[in-house]
Each structure stands twice: as C-alpha cells, then as structure tokens.
Amino acid sequence: MSYRFDGLPIARRTTTCGGAPHSPAPVESDGSQPKTVRCDAGRLPERILRAIALVYESDGVRALHITSRQVLATLIRFALNQKDPTSLAFIKKATIARHLAISEATVYRALGALEDAGLIERERQQRTRAQLEVVGRIAFTAKLLQCIGLAGRELGYPEPRTGSDESRSCSACLAPVSGVNNPKQSSTKKHSGPRAFVQIHDRAVPIDLAPLVRDQELTTSALFLLMRLAREAGHRLSDVVSAAGHVLGPLRGRELFAYLKSLVGKPIDYGHVVRTRKAQEDERRATAAQAAQDRLEVAQLIERYRGRRVSAPDGRIYEVDSASIVITEANGRRNSLGHDQARAWLIEMDRAAAGLSPAFPPPRSTKRSSSAMADAAIQRLRKLVGCQTGLSRGFVP
Question: Where does the record place the region Disordered (predicted)?
C-alpha cells in the first residue's frame, strides 16, 4: 500500500509551478501503484475553507508545529460538524496519516500537542476484550472555535448540499474503530484535560512550566524541545518536573536542560510518582483536617459542660473540670481522663445530656483508681512475702 501527499489539506492540486511539479512525488511501497489522496478543496463549504486557512494564519495556533497544524486542518476538514461545531467527532488516525503521508505515531503526537494547547479534547479510551484501544472521540474547544472564526456563529441555516458531503464521508471513514494503534506507540498513555498557558516572548507556555523560563533561565525553544522529548518517551514534562521537586531549584540554563533531558530518558513512570505523592499529601492533609476538627469539637464540648454534672441512664455521672473529665461509675468507682484523651467520653456525655443512647462503648480509662492500685500492691507484697517464707523453710511454693 502506498500513498501520495498533495500538499496541505486545502491546497489545490497544481501540475506545474514555474515549469516544475508543485506537489511532491508519490510515496511508493510494496510495488503497488500510488494511491492519490482526493483533493476536493473547491467543493468544501466556504466557512470550512476559511477555518482551515485560519489554522495556518491565526495567532492562537501559530505557535504550533506545522505538522500539528496540518493534523488540525485535517480534523476540521473531515470531522467538524458544520451545524454543531461543539459536537463530538471521530476519525481514524490511519485516515489522517494516509491523507498527510505521515506515520500514525506522528499523528498521535500531534493530537497530544493539540490537546496540550487546549484546542481539542479527547474522550478517555476504553479497553476492548481483545486488549486493543478504541479511538476516543474528539471535541473542538471554544478556544479553537474562536481562533478559526466559528465561535458564536450560527451554522444551522440550510445550505445547498454538494457532492463533497458524500465524498468526504466516504473518504474519511468516520467510524469508531478498534485496534488502529501501532503496538510500538504509547497507546495507553493517559492524557489530562486542557492546560492553562501564559505568554512568554510571544509564545504560549504551560503555566506549570513557566517558572523554568522566567526564573531558571531556560529558553522557550529548549522547553518545547524537552516537552517533545518527554512526549515521545511517553511522559509529560510537567510530571517530570513535579517528580524532581526541589532538586531543580539550584539549576539554571544548560544545567537545567541537561538534567531534565536525562530524567526524560529514564524508564520511570513519573505520572505514577506524582499521583502517589499527591495521594499521600491529600491523606496527610485529610488527617490533619480531621485532627483539627476533633480538637475543635472537644473544645466546644468542654466549654459547654464545664462545671456541670450529667447523669447517664446506666448510672454513670460525668463531670468536666478545668483539666479533665471525671466519670463516676454506678458502683462508685471514679475515673478521670485529660481533655485531649477524653473525646469519646465527652461525646457520650453530650448524648446523655440529650437523652440519647450511647453511641459506642466508651474506652477504658488509662488511669487506674486509687483503690485498684492499692489492691494490686497488696497482692504483690503477699506473693513476695510468701516466696521469701518458702525459701527460708527450704522449698519453693
């Protein structure tokens, strides 16, 4: 199978230009005849032609690589719904690759760059029973529609139907297909949602990577090169930077570039590292927040019941003083706990004051009553005296 690339998606096929062919020679493969990609730009609707032209001229997408813009133009040509540009669309990567005479891996990277730039959004891919990946549908963002002049435009009015509708649907093969990924690609790579960007030296830089340029003397060209290398290695540069953490702090310029380049080449799942670290941080924050909530609850209960006596249905009597809570059992035994250890007792006291049943069995007191301690001491002394008496008589009891 072989393919011919006749220029950009909207370019008309030109036989000669100054005596020489305008379009490149067809790419031959497997000894078969070259397959010419249909070039029916003249039959496309005017607003679609204008949108494709703006892909190459609009300031909002000019910072993208030419290949990414070609892929975007192909998406607009074959997948954009004229009546509802915000609706989801789907198209085979093989169709894009065949139309542009590039590899599917290049198409995949270009789609990732478009998503990173916030121009498209892709649905999460679902795994099939055959362990293949299904191509997710693509949504054109409001940012892209603004750049190509389709934002807020009413596209639902009737329009004469042309032959391009049928030819485009046949040429694009618009259908959800499984197993189109090349096994050598990183087809299981996770993609995040649209990212925020800032303008640095008239170029759009991801906001989470902007400090590398502003504060650590990394050039924008070096940053974009690192982003491309990371994407080719199956990483996100933001994950690499986040995983490195404070180690990058003292590095500047070329040293920073060299260090990040070495990290990008390592077989480490930086996304997993970042997610694990974030989960641990979230857990620590949740634990700290719960502890603060418990302390606040204890303080409120102490303030509410300080100096009061509350009798429970089971015969217990609760009292709160300035340093502890005192619990008098039904048999007259008294126990006490400090405020910081008595949250469960305070909750039971509050429920008893409200006439509610106990929420859970209260914990055992960490302090023993004076009578219990005296009984234990007497028993130990008796054992000790008995042992010494037996030794003096020549036998062990």
Answer: 14-37
Residues written for the chain: 397
- Tell which residue, 22, 23, 112, has the closest CA to residue 67: 112
Task: Give Cα separations from 121 to 144, 188, 285, 286, 376 (angstroms).
Answer: 11, 16, 31, 32, 73
Note the pLDDT tens digit of each residue in 75-115: 888 888 878 888 888 788 888 888 888 988 888 888 888 88
Q: Return the SS3 of 11.
A: coil
- Token look-up 């028993």 returns 379
User: If we measure between CA atoms, which residue out of 322, 325, 323 comes closest to residue 349?
Assistant: 325
Distance (Å) of CA 116 to CA 51, 71, 194, 330, 389: 20, 14, 6, 69, 88
- At 204, the pLDDT band (50, 70, 90 cuts) reads confident
∠ CA 23-79-138, nearest 5°, is: 120
Q: Which two tokens stand for residue 238?
A: 């933001």
The DSSP element (H or E) to which 217 belongs, if any, is none
- 267-303 burial, b at 16+ Cβ within 10 Å, e below that, comes to eeebbebbeeeeeeeeeeeeeeeeeeeeeeebeebbe
In angstroms, the CA 269 to CA 350 distance is 51
Minimum mean pLDDT among 114-118, 180-184, 281-285: which range?
Answer: 180-184
For the chain, which domains are there? 41-172 (1.10.10.10), 197-268 (no CATH), 273-366 (no CATH)
pLDDT, position 50: 84
Following DSSP, what letter does each residue of 288-344 receive, concatenated? HHHHHHHHHHHHHHHHHHBT-EEE-TTS-EEEE-SSEEEEE-TTS-EEEEEGGG-HH
Q: What is the DSSP letter of 241?
A: H
**Of the candidates 81, 18, 9, the residue with the CA atom closest to the CA atom of residue 49:** 9
CA distance 54 to 49: 9
Which one, of 238, 242, 260, lies nearest residue 192 by Cα?
Answer: 238
Tokens of 162: 């042309």
The whole-angstrom separation of Cα 363 and Cα 344 is: 7
Higher pLDDT, 227 or 342: 227
